[in-house]
Amino acid sequence: MSSPEFSEWIESDLRQIRDAALFRSRRTFRPLPGGRCVLDGQTLINLSSNDYLDLAHDQRLISAATAALAEMGVGARASALVSGRTEWHTKLETQLAQFEGTEAAILFPSGYAANLGVVSALASEQDTVFCDRLNHASLIDGCRLSGARLRVFRHDSLGKLKRELEKVTGEGKKIIVTDSVFSMDGSLAPLVSLCDLAEEFQAILMIDEAHATGIWGATGRGLAEELGVAHRVMVRIGTLSKAVGTLGGFVAGSSAMIDWLWNRVRTQIYSTALPPAICAAACQSLEIIQAEQERRCILFERAEFLRNELQQRTNVTIPSSAGPIIPIILQDPDITMNIAAELQEAGFLVGAIRPPTVPEGTSRLRISLTCAHQQDDLERFLKALDRSLARNVESR
Known about the structure:
Layout: H1 3-19, E1 29-32, E2 36-39, E3 42-46, H2 59-72, H3 80-84, H4 87-100, E4 104-108, H5 111-122, E5 128-132, H6 137-146, E6 149-153, H7 159-167, E7 174-179, H8 191-200, E8 204-208, H9 223-226, E9 235-239, E10 249-253, H10 255-264, H11 266-269, H12 276-291, H13 294-310, E11 325-331, H14 333-345, E12 348-349, E13 351-353, E14 363-368, H15 375-394
Parallel strand pairs: 3-12, 5-6, 5-7, 7-8, 8-9
Antiparallel strand pairs: 1-2, 2-3, 4-10, 9-10, 11-14, 13-14
């Protein structure tokens, strides 16, 4: 393909994206404390944040990061394997293992890198991977990259998963891969049933607790703790970029598994380590999460109020979900974008999610709450939403 042909191909594909109302523009965003933000100069109530426990702006995290910056500088300078694993990385991995109740933990530069790297390292061509259809893109990409046979199942209908597990013969590994909390729906994986199936068919169960770490469970370990199955899950992946309020991914488990990952996972071996200051802030955040459990209580109170209110609306679909992620299914991408724009004019930033992030016909507003949101914020949001729905949905 020559240079002009390449340019024409790019322009043609961009036109198709725009014509389908799927074009994504870049905007300038500034986070503020208290569940607020500034977007392209406009101050908004931020209903799109994954900072569930309102820790990213906490002065204690900022102070910890500032002190580590002065001590260690900005970057880690190398991969953790070569020379980038500082005392702060060591401390955070130790603290994560204690937090998760495991022998050891290993850090990754992002949750995406953790999922992509771990799945593709564990699975190979002779293995079979069973992937939930609503899994995060990083898990799906890891399954594909592994070269393993891929089977897709639905967590709300595990009959197919059982039938596919029954079909597998031979020496290859069977690996079940799932999010614990699905990021676009807010629905919960049936971890008890998945553990039962994994044990029945001698499969490895791998779960990503990205949207559950810090929120679910008596101590905030995640949904596996909430459901009492943490000890039955072989591979537990988490992220530091959501409720923990910082950056990075991690895996918690046995010392042997962590040593194996250290030696086998390419996204960890060949990535520059997390900045030491980020590790210092994450250490502080884990302490706060365990000490200030009222943050989780407030978060779930806000979520229950808003979900109950939205479920009374007959002009939208609110799927069954739990926790701070609440989707409003609008189906049409144009309507979704129109309502999101009108909500922004009214002072609210809400994620407008369209294909290919979600399946065709399920375009949605994705509300994501934090414990910083006030009751008054949510009541005003509901009024603005009702006005916009009347213009865009009821009038059609």
